[in-house]
């Protein structure tokens, strides 16, 4: 039973990424595509947290409360998760700014209407 529960977070992460990719593929609006990309990126948070999780693990602060042999969680994975969140926020904000500029200049956010170049 524990082995099955060990793979559950990886399956959830894969399902979230797949849901975001399907949303990007069927999107008929650029804002919807940006939101689906954000959902896809949130699957990486779940994946990174699943990699760093350890049953019975404590915070990686070594002092008088943590004894030798006590399992601790990996702080590198936590730092990567925070970095992933910051990068995702920056990418989402830049893409939304780009969508706003496209809407101002072309008057639409439908990808099919943006195929032809004018100029």
Task: List the topology elements.
Layout: H1 2-26, H2 30-52, H3 75-106
What fraction of the residues are assigned to beta strands by DSSP?
A: under 5%
Number of domains: 1
Low-pLDDT windows of residues: none
Give the helix tally: 3
**Spatial separation of the terminal alpha carbons:** 63 Å
Overall structural class, as computed from helix and strand content, comes to mainly alpha
Q: Averaged pLDDT, please? A: 85
* CATH architecture label name: Orthogonal Bundle
Q: Would you count the extended β strands for me?
A: 0
The Cα radius of gyration reads 20 Å
Secondary-structure element string: HHH
CATH topology: Helix Hairpins
Determine and state the CATH class: Mainly Alpha
- Helix proportion: 55-70%
Give a quick account of the main beta sheet: strands, pairing sense, barrel closure.
Answer: none
Outline type: elongated
Give a short synopsis of this structure.
This protein has helices at residues 2-26, 30-52, 75-106.
What features would you describe in this structure?
The chain has three helices and no strands. With 119 residues, the chain is mainly alpha-helical. The chain has a single domain (2-114), classed as Helix Hairpins. Helix 2 (30-52) packs antiparallel against helix 3. The longest helix is centred in the last third of the chain and has 32 residues, at 75-106. The radius of gyration is 20 Å and the shape is elongated.
């Amino acid at each position: 039973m524990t082995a099955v529960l060990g793979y559950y977070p990886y399956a959830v992460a894969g399902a979230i990424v797949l849901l975001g990719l399907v949303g990007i593929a069927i999107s008929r609006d650029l804002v919807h595509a940006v939101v689906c990309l954000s959902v896809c990126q949130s699957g990486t948070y779940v994946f990174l947290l699943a990699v760093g999780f350890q049953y019975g693990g404590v915070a990686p602060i070594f002092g008088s409360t943590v004894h030798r042999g006590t399992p601790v969680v990996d702080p590198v994975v936590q730092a990567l998760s925070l970095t992933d969140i910051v990068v995702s926020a920056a990418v989402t904000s830049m893409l939304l700014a780009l969508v706003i500029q496209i809407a101002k200049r072309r008057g639409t956010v439908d990808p099919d209407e943006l195929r032809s170049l004018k100029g």
